[in-house]
Task: inverse folding
């Protein structure tokens, strides 16, 4: 755009990219780290809790408004979705 003196709108139309996706910048990185810290803390404290109980605890007990799909994406990225086999005894 700078080299050819073309506007952003014209350049996006030429390459078939929407202007909103060109201008998009994610702003939630700090929140994702907070979610990750809370999930790790919960799973360390309560080994038998899966995603469902962790999410319900964050939503209902703590009052966080996060989407379940977002929390599950971070839960899986941390490797917490593996089944933990507890010793029988």
Result:
């Amino acid at each position: 755009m700078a080299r050819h003196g073309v506007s952003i709108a014209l350049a996006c139309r030429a390459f078939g990219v929407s202007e909103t996706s060109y201008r998009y910048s994610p702003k939630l990185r700090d929140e994702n780290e907070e979610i990750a810290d809370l999930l790790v803390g919960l799973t360390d404290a309560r080994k038998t809790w899966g995603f469902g109980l962790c999410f319900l605890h964050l939503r209902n007990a703590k009052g966080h408004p996060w989407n379940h799909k977002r929390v599950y994406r971070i839960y899986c990225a941390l490797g917490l979705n593996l089944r933990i086999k507890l010793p029988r005894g």
Summary: The chain has a mean pLDDT of 89. Residues 27-77 form one domain.
